[in-house]
Amino acid sequence: MTASTVAPPAVLSPLRLLGRSTLGVLKRVGSVAVFAARGVAAAASPPWFSAQLLRQLAAVGYFSLPVVGLTAVFTGAALALNIYTGGGRFNAEQVMPQIVALGITRELAPVLAALMLAGRVSAAIAAELGAMRATEQIDAMQTLSTDPFRYLVAPRLVAGVVMLPLLTVVADLIGVAGGWLVATRVLHFNPTVYIRNTMSFLQAWDVGSGLIKAAVFGFIVTLMGCFHGYNAKGGARGVGRATTHAVVSASVLVFAADYLLTSLFAHT
Amino acid sequence: MTTVPKLAWKGVHKRFDGKRVLDGLDLAVDAGRSLVIIGGSGQGKSVTLKVALGLMTPDAGEIALDGQDVVGLRGPARSKLFSRFGMLFQGGALFDSLSVWENVAFRLLNADGVKRKAARERAVEALERVRLGAQVADLFPGELSGGMQKRVGLARAVVATPEIIFFDEPTTGLDPITAAAINGLIVEQVRRLGCTAVSITHDLASARTIGDEIAMLNKGQIIWRGTPAELDHTDDARVRQFVDGRPDGPLTNRH
What we know:
A: globular, B: alpha/beta
C-alpha cells in the first residue's frame, strides 16, 4: 500500500477544510491583485480608447447623478433631524450644522455614493462583461487584435476613479442642502447663520479626505464589476452569480477601505 | 522536398480540472488548403481551435505557424499574430453595443488605425461580398436574424485579408437553405483570399462543401483523415458510426 492511498484520520478533516478554504481565499486575492495590476497598467499606457472612456464617464458619472443626489438629500435631512434631537440631550442643538457638514463630507457622501455605484454601476459592468464572456465577444475582441483590458477594463476603472469624487462633491453640496432644508423649514434655524456656521467650520481637508476616499471607492467598485464579469463562467447563471458577487464584494470592500482610510487620515 | 505546413499542432496536450481534452494532438494544414475537423461533442474540437488561435495555452506541445512555435507569445507579438487570423465564432460573437459596420470594421478602427470613413467603406464592401446590402450597415446585431449575424461575422473575419481563417460550427442553428448559403460564402471567400481555412463542425454536409480535407477528432486525438470523397467510403468503424449517425458503435462503447 502506498502512502497516497492511506485515508487521513477523520480528526484532520476540519483542518483540511480550513486549509483548502484558506488557499482558496489566497488564490482569489491573488487573482484580484493580478487583475487590478493589469487594469492599471492598461490605463497607464497607450493605446487609449477615448470613445470608450467618454462612454464610461457618462455611464458611471452622469447617469448616476439622480440616485446619488436623492440619496444625499434624504441622508442630509435625516442626519440633521437625528443630530438635533440627539444633541438636545446635552444642549448641543446649535452645533448641528457643523456636525451635518462634517458627517456628510468626511463619511456619508463618499460611502453612500460608492454604495449607490456598487448597486448601479458594478452590477451593470459585471452583467455586461459577463454576457460578453458568455457569448465569446471577449474572445472575439482578442482575435481582432484588441486587448480587452485596454478596451473594456481600463476605461471603466478610470471612469470610477474620476467620477466618484465628482459625484461626491455633488453629494456633499446636496447633503448639506438637505440638512439646511430641514434645519430652516422644520427646526426654524436662521438660513444665513446655518450657512455661515457650516462654511466657517469646514476645513479643506474635511472635503479633501472624502474625495480621496471616493477615488479609492470608485476604483474598488469598478474593479469588482470588471473582475467578476470578465471571469464569469457558466452562461446566464454565471452572469447572475457574477453580478451578485460584484455588488456584495464591492460593498464589503468599500466599508473595509473606509475604515482603513479613516484610520490612516486620523493620524495625519 | 518537404513543405512546411501553414499551421501545425504538434503533440498538444490540454486538460481541464484533471479531464484530458487534447491528448498529444498532431495535425497540420498546408497553405491554401481548407481542413475541416469533425467529431462528437466534448471531443476537443473547440479547444483545438482555441489553442491554435492563442485564446488558450496548451499544457504541452507546440502550435507552429509557418514552422515557428507561437505558444507563449504575449502582448504586441500576440496582437500582431492575431492580425494574421480571421475567426467566425459559433454564435457570431458580434458586439451588441456597436453597429453592424463598426463590428465589421472593429479591427480596422481599433488595431489598424484606419480612419472611420475609410473603415466604413471597407466594411460596406465586405458586407456586400457576403450578400448584405449597405442598408444593414447602421443596424445593430440584435436587429438581425441568425443567418445575417453569421454573414456579418464572416464579413468581419475576412475584411482584413487574413492568412488563416477559423470557422467554429459555421452552420449550427441555421436552416438548411441558410446553412447552404453560408457554406457557399465560406468557400467563395476562402478561394478569393487564397487563405488557409480550419473549420470545426458536426454538420457533414458543411464539412463536405467547405473542406479539401476532413479530419476526425476523438478523445483528443486525430483518428482519421481524408478527402470528402474518402469519408463516404472509409472502412474505419469509428468514422462510419459518426457518418451514419448510429448511437451504438466503437465511439460510444465504453469497453
